[in-house]
Amino acid sequence: MRFENYSIRARLALFTGTAVGALCIVFSIVLLFAINRMATQNLAKEVTAVGELTAYYVDRGELVNPLPPIPHNLIRPVQVVDPRGQVVAATNDLQNRPPMAHFRPKSPGRVASGVVCDSVFPSGGCHIVVAQQVYRDGDWTIYSAAPTLPFFVYPGVAALLIVGTAVFTVAVAYGARHTVTRSLQPVDAIRAQLDHIRSTNLSRRVPIPTARDEIHRLARSVNETLNRLESMLEQQRRFCSDASHELRTPITAIRTQIEDALLAPEDVDLNRLCDDILPSVERLQSITADLLTLTRFDADEPSELRAVDLAELVAVELNSHQMSRKVVRRLTPDVIVRGDRAQLRQLICNLLQNAQRYASSTVTVTLRHGGGDPRSAAAMVELEVLDDGTGIAADQRETVFLRFTRLDTARSRDAGGIGLGLPIARQIAERHGGTLTIQDSDRGARFVVRLPVDS
């Protein structure tokens, strides 16, 4: 089974146990090495002490063979080699054997040491050999030795380290798994709650643990995401319901007129029938176009941005519309913004249609710099569309930017919009790094678009 298929608990316990086990093994090896080094140094000192004691007797001329008197706690393999290289005295275990080593100190009074393997020692193996020189009618050499120590030195210590490593590794792995299990209990509760959430009921929320840790923040983020999802789904349901209602009205009108014409085809005036149906078809076309625009905006399709003369664009849009109200123009020339020309034209068109629909007699269109140096990247321009109608109450100024939202006064008019013009206009402004808001005015509704100047 692949490692990724294990649970987080198992993976963390395995990783922690492996890491701790490896660290314990390294520590044990280092500790055994340090113990071995210390024990070897102490053993070398003992071997040197035995050689020094033998050198004392050689220096006094009290040499006997086999070599006494060496205390029992210091008895080591010892040999005395005369200046001719002959072994003249040795301990009992090295009687009648050649010299145990062939190296000598470089100068009298000094000591040389080394490790000699498979030499004259009855026990075999490797030995630490210390050579010391004594001058008595020539240079005499005393060799003393002791078997080298194994790496683990003391078997009990090695066994204790092995058992301790195993126990400590298992304990740490178990502790890590237990800790992770307890830490992930809130995650299990969150998962269980998410499993019960369905698209038909998004009101449930995941439990938030009391400990303010990463899981606490995760639970809060999940709940905030669920809030946004519930809001979006509710908006989608309302959007579909409103779109269906708006589409059903012209479709029903077209169906009724066609059915009436089919009941009495001889009495039907084709031109009049087409004239009656055309407004409903145009309404369907307008709704479909607006829905398509919103779909593209929601999908965040990229726009082709280029320098646009906003004053020229507003003038073109005013000239192309048959305005039923008086229009007052206050346009500052050469106001350049960077944006999608078609989208900006639709923004202007939607604001003009809205103003014309609710104005009593006059629509005022103002274009000016909105503050700051026009050459600065932070400079803004303001496009203001003001009508002299009844205006919009302060508590409804954000409501009109919701999709398919129309005020009651609009619903009473035959020429009322479908409630998508202003939401589309605001999205266009925001896609261009600007804003669309409703500001206070003495009379009527004052829509203000702020867009960054093209730098």
UniProtKB/TrEMBL annotation:
It is an enzyme of class 2 (transferase). InterPro entries: HAMP_dom, HATPase_C_sf, HATPase_dom, His_kinase_dom, HisK_dim/P_dom, HisK_dim/P_sf, Sig_transdc_His_kin-like_C, TCS_sensor_his_kinase. It catalyses: ATP + protein L-histidine = ADP + protein N-phospho-L-histidine. Keywords: Kinase, Membrane, Phosphoprotein, Transferase, Transmembrane, Transmembrane helix, Two-component regulatory system. Residues 242-455 form the Histidine kinase domain. Its EC number is 2.7.13.3. Its main location: membrane. One of its GO terms (cellular component) is plasma membrane. It is found in: Cell membrane. Residues 181-234 form the HAMP domain. It comes from the Bacteria. GO terms for molecular function: phosphorelay sensor kinase activity. The chain crosses the membrane at residues 12-35, 152-176. Signal peptide: none annotated. CDD domains: HAMP, HATPase, HisKA. This is histidine kinase. It comes from Planotetraspora phitsanulokensis.
